[in-house]
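I'll show a record.
***
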Amino acid sequence: MTLPGCRPIFPFLVTLGVCALPVVSDAQEVVVRERVYYPIEVEPHFSIGNEDVFGAVGYGGGVRLGVPLARGHLGRVPQNIAISFGGDIIHYQDCYNGSGCSGNYLMFPVAAQWNIGFHRNFSLLLEGGGYVYKGWYDTCGPGCGPSDLGVLPTFAVGGRLHLHDNVAFLFRVGYPMSTIGLSFL
């Protein structure tokens, strides 16, 4: 039993649905690509310095810039390679030798960053590079702290939880510091 007038509408709806599927699929893929393919990233963040750098956990903040150098795909997953650089200031309250001194560090990271857009709301980052640091001490006797100028290797893993097309919550866990902040793409 068929309802009068329904026959011509059904093939039309099926055809419309079949034609609309590729458009919806392409729209979702474009959203993912836009979040991994950006012209520049500005990342203000809070920083947590590892305990083994100065002897106690340090706290501070900084900003990084990310500039994409290349982009591509892992299968259907968009990715890019970027250079990330910036500056942080970290305060450490206690020395590792128990002398009660405290210190501050200016740290300048430069790292290669691999960004992988697994989902339209989440992207993974892996990075490696180096930090140039300059330290100074508030109160310190002879032999209190490590060198006040040097270079440290850096490696980190992190991610971006995309809150909007151009804004993401970013976290990075690594050595010699971890960060948490926002990413403006």
Notes: The two ends are 57 Å apart (CA to CA). The helical segments are 9-36, 51-54. The first strand starts at residue 41 and ends at 49.
